[in-house]
Amino acid sequence: MQLVKDSWIHSIINHPKWAVSWCALLCCLGWQAATQLQVRQFPLIPSGMIRLVATYPGADAQLIQNSVTTVLQRAIGQADSFDYIQATTTDGGCQINAYLPLGADIDRAFPSVLAQVQSVKSSLPPDLNDPVLTRARVSPLALMYVAYVATEGSALNQSEIYQYLNLVIRPQLLTVPGVGEIN
Question: What CATH fold (topology level) applies to the domain 48-140?
Fold first, then answer.
């Protein structure tokens, strides 16, 4: 196969300085493009989440939606900037998850959310249990799943096992650094 004398391949082979120059130019342009690529072009990766759980015993979902969820959602929305807020209302309670943007400090956002919730507490129904706020650093995968299984004929019944896990084991696990949530 014979190369045409005026082809660009022939000039690269005969002049390696041009080849090195073109490679350097392409590397510089690639580096510049990679450093200017904005974060919004990547998938949504929240850095933290603040969860509020409120229980209203005996109330139906519509009543909770109108008198609790909407009020708390607006209050949380007035706190530090969030990427998005999700709310779920069921009979007897609601759960609101507020997701912080990438790089936001959850430890600075938490007190402002707490202050906003406290400011609207007087407008909530009197029978509502105090809303519980928790913070969690969001990870796409859990590093560990732990289950407690009781064999048939064990010394504890199901209620006693639940109380033991909830009152003894859960508080101890929550003190371990890196533990985000225990269900």
Answer: Alpha-Beta Plaits (3.30.70)
